[in-house]
Amino acid sequence: MFRKKSNTLVVWLLPLVVLLSFAVGLGQKRRIPPGGHLAVVADERLAALRAAPEPSSRLLRRLNRGRLVSIRGASRSHEGLLFYHVVINRHTSGWLQSEAIISSARPSDDQRLAHLISGADEFDRVAHARMFLDVFPRSPLGPQVLLMLGEAAEDGATKLSREVERRFERRDLPTDAAPEFSYFLNYSGLDRYNRQRVTFTFDRATKQFHYDGAAWRELVQRYPNSSEAGEARKHLEMLATVGVR
Predict the structure, then answer these.
(1) Rg (Cα) of the chain, in Å, rounded?
(2) C or N terminus of the chain, fewer CB within 10 Å?
(3) Which residues are paired to 131 by β-bridges?
(4) Which domains does the chain have, with CATH numbers?
(5) What distance, in Å, lies between the first and last C-alpha atoms of the chain?
(6) C-alpha angle 15/18/19, rounded to 5°?
(7) In sequence order, what DSSP letters do the residues of 151-211 get, joined into one string?
(8) Is the separation of the CB atoms in 152 and 129 below 8 Å?
(9) Is 12 exposed, middle or buried (0-12, 13-18, 19+ CB in 10 A)?
């Protein structure tokens, strides 16, 4: 009897532990919302906290991606949309459309979040992929997401390289101050990627950023026999030909 209760407790606590680990991984300074079942905002486009479970109800605030909420109840709107009554902190609560959040306790949320990674913006793809790996560490979609994370990061490196080329033209950099390459390595556009634990190498000769390949190496190590691992090896072989000078 004790063993059965103990196992049930472990199953109930696992989603909580995963989401708490996610918050720590983000370096989140906000307090964990009290009570209920924890979830995290994944789709900012739908993350309007409202006074009632209706899409036309008064807007209380917009929630950012990665924000933890505590689910207290549920209700459907007149149009059939499912809303959750969520708590943000001890002073703020409201109604949030169910598709705005994901939780490791809800079936198929890993598939829904994986779908968000296919967006056009490089950084959004990186952020959603990192969220996926933190919240769903045991999902069978892990190899696919690791591959997409690496590809999104490399696309981000290409975009950053174009940005710094326009930002740091040679005539704009002092010749008697810090080394030229250090201006590139301190470019503010790198900051948000760094907060997602994505880092880049820098080729001083071509003044190009490149993704360091961490997700691809993790993919090959954890899922060596997957089809995605074969693609990751190709990316790593190409990365090895890039000079970092």
Answers:
(1) 21
(2) N
(3) none
(4) 2-102 (2.30.30.40), 109-240 (no CATH)
(5) 64
(6) 90
(7) HHHHHHHHHHHHHHHHH--GGGS-SSSS-HHHHHHT-GGGHHHHHTT--EEEETTTTEEEE
(8) yes
(9) exposed
Which pair of structure tokens corresponds to residue 26?
Answer: 């983000």
Q: Number of H helices and number of E strands within the chain? A: 8, 9
Low-confidence ranges of the chain (pLDDT < 70): 1-31, 169-176, 243-245
pLDDT tens by residue, 38-90: 999 999 999 999 999 999 999 999 999 999 999 999 999 999 999 999 999 88
Q: Name 236's Cβ contacts closer than 8 Å, sequence gap at least 6.
A: 213, 216, 217, 220
State pTM to two decimals: 0.82
Q: d(Cα 33, Cα 12) in Å, to the nearest integer?
A: 18
Locate tokens 């950012």: which residue?
A: 64
Continuous segment of H or E residues that includes residue 86: strand 82-89
Residue 53 CA to residue 181 CA, distance in Å, equals: 53
